[in-house]
Write a structure and sequence with these properties.
The structure holds two protein chains of two kinds. Chain A has six helices and nine strands. By secondary structure, chain A is α/β, with parallel strands linked by helices. In chain A, the strands form two sheets. Chain A has a six-stranded mixed beta sheet with strand order 5-6-7-3-8-9, with helices on both faces. The termini of chain A are far apart. By secondary structure, chain B is mainly α. Chain B contains 14 helices and no strands. In chain B, helix 1 packs parallel to helix 7, helix 4 (61-82) runs antiparallel to helix 10 and helix 13 (215-240) packs across helix 14 (244-270). The N and C termini of chain B lie far apart (43 Å).
């Protein structure tokens, strides 16, 4: 397996507050990495570091190929009344490619429409985002991430708003996508981590890596400091874990 | 009303309404979309310090207020993070301190200053040719910037973080937009005054927002409503001999109220 991103001995945080200490992580080509950890454990900080939005205090981050990130952020950071249409949000994923002074090319708009169609929201094309439900907006943001043919896709807490009836389809699409794209899926909810995940990292002030798709009792207590009860539900086949005794 | 066109001052006022509409319509749409109303109000009010200083030392207040506005824009952009103070608290401080400083400067100058009133509440009827020229230049810069960088402005405003990931020059474009906001406030001070300028940056936009949620259409409609407000205000000011700043704001509010009521009626009947 070819390593595409490598984090070495990294300390990272904000101003003088260290959030994560001594992080080592390798992300492979066509990896499917699940990152789990409780709220406030530093998951979003790790993502921001990988995306280059913040610099580490110590250590280094290496990119071995030219990386084109697709990122699906948490929904709560958005101004839901901002005057922008669904199509514009999706096209904004291509802004790096677009030349200044030029309008969107026909094939760009077609590409955006094809994606919207794939996610069953083509009818919302010209709607302002303020009229969308949380689940619909999330699909729009996934389209924005995919339109640039990203080779690393990062999803931050995708379970918060995902509509139940569409959950299955989204995971099917991701599975298909994973043949050509590395996917990093972040969640505080272990139940969301799909069965076909390849590697798992648990976060709690530092990072514990497991190169298997087995979520053991040990991994969970590393991340949560206590045994957790897990229930899998929905159409999608989640990995069901053995019961814990409190 | 036609006989008014024989007067140069009235023609200047008419040109001013058109020029103001473009800068306030466009920049106001950005300010409203990005929820920068409070910071813009703070800058506008704080500008009294620059005006007072200009009147005191006897230079054109337009120059002193421009330098002052640039100074506080810089402070507002870089200071809150550096000294770890909450941004809106910092705006409140600059807002009140700037006004106090302005009153202090004016009081040092002996005698009542009629001039000050025209800066506080505006007087579209005494706009000079030089001021019209600065307004024209501002309009051209703003229109070119928004035509060429429309998508970049829209995407950065909607999701700054994603724009950074895509390696857009986010800081540069944000800084340019902030400077344009500052210049729009300062250069249009003469039309409605620094106490009322925030109205032209928010009321026409709110009226436009009743009809559309599309940023481009909000901009175009805002320009239209801004012009209609200034035009009606100018006429009412002449008709009833009331200060033009006040009559322009009344007109803007009137359009908003009418559109708001029409929308509600349509909503009721369409049910």
């Amino acid at each position: 397996m070819k390593t595409i991103i490598e984090l070495k001995n990294i300390d990272v945080g904000y101003s003088d507050n260290i959030v994560l200490k001594d992080v080592n992580l390798k992300i492979y080509e066509n990896d499917f990495l699940g990152i789990i950890g409780a709220n406030g454990s530093g998951k979003t900080t790790l993502i921001k570091l990988i995306l280059g939005l913040i610099k580490p205090f110590k250590g280094e981050i290496k990119f071995y190929i030219d990386i084109n990130f697709g990122y699906v952020p948490q929904l709560n950071m958005f101004d839901r009344k901002f005057p922008i249409s669904v199509l514009d949000v999706v096209l904004s994923g291509l802004i790096r490619k677009k030349r200044i002074f030029k309008k969107w090319a026909k094939e760009d708009i077609e590409k955006a429409e094809n994606l919207l169609n794939k996610f069953n929201i083509l009818n919302l094309r010209n709607k302002p985002i303020g009229e969308l439900s949380g689940g619909q907006l999330q699909r729009v943001l996934i389209c924005r991430a995919l339109i640039s043919n990203c080779n690393v896709l990062i999803l931050d807490e995708p379970d918060t708003y995902i509509d139940k009836e569409f959950e299955f389809t989204i995971y099917e699409i991701m599975k298909e996508l994973n043949k050509t794209t590395a996917i990093i899926l972040v969640s505080h909810d272990i139940g969301i981590i799909p069965i076909y995940i390849k590697n798992i990292a648990c976060i709690n002030k530092t990072l514990f890596y497991h190169s298997s798709n087995e979520i053991s009792d040990k991994i969970i207590s590393e991340a949560y400091k206590c045994p957790v009860d897990l229930i899998a539900h929905g159409k999608f086949p989640h990995r069901i874990l053995k019961e814990h005794i409190h | 009303m036609l006989e008014l066109l024989n007067y140069q001052f009235f023609i200047n006022a008419l040109i001013a309404t058109i020029l103001t509409s473009f800068s306030c319509g466009i920049i106001g749409s950005y300010i409203v979309a990005k929820r920068l109303v409070f910071i813009s109000g703070g800058i506008a009010h704080s500008c009294l310090a620059g005006i007072g200083f200009g009147l005191l030392v006897g230079i054109n207040p337009l120059f002193s207020v421009m330098i002052y506005a640039l100074l506080i824009s810089f402070l507002l952009n870089y200071f809150p993070d550096k000294i770890n103070i909450r941004e809106d608290s910092f705006i409140g401080i600059l807002w009140a301190f700037g006004m106090a400083l302005g009153v202090f400067f004016v009081s040092l100058k002996t005698g009542y200053s009629q001039d000050l009133m025209t800066y506080l509440f505006g007087n579209i009827l005494i706009i000079s040719r030089f001021e019209l020229l600065t307004m024209l230049i501002l309009d051209i810069v703003i229109i070119l910037f928004f035509v060429f960088f429309y998508n970049e402005i829209l995407y950065i405003s909607y999701d700054e973080q994603y724009a950074r990931i895509q390696k857009l020059p986010v800081n540069l474009i944000k800084l340019l937009l902030f400077l344009l906001c500052t210049f729009t406030i300062v250069i249009n001070l003469r039309v409605v005054g620094n106490f009322l300028i925030i109205a032209l940056l928010t009321i026409p936009q709110a009226t436009a927002n009743i009809f559309t949620n599309n940023f481009k259409r909000i901009i175009l409609l805002s320009i239209l409503f801004c012009f209609l407000s200034c035009f009606l205000g100018l006429y009412l000011s002449y008709l009833f001999e009331i200060p033009s700043g006040a009559s322009i704001i009344f007109s803007a509010f009137l359009y908003f109220l009418i559109c708001f009521i029409i929308q509600k009626i349509i909503l009721i009947f369409s049910k």
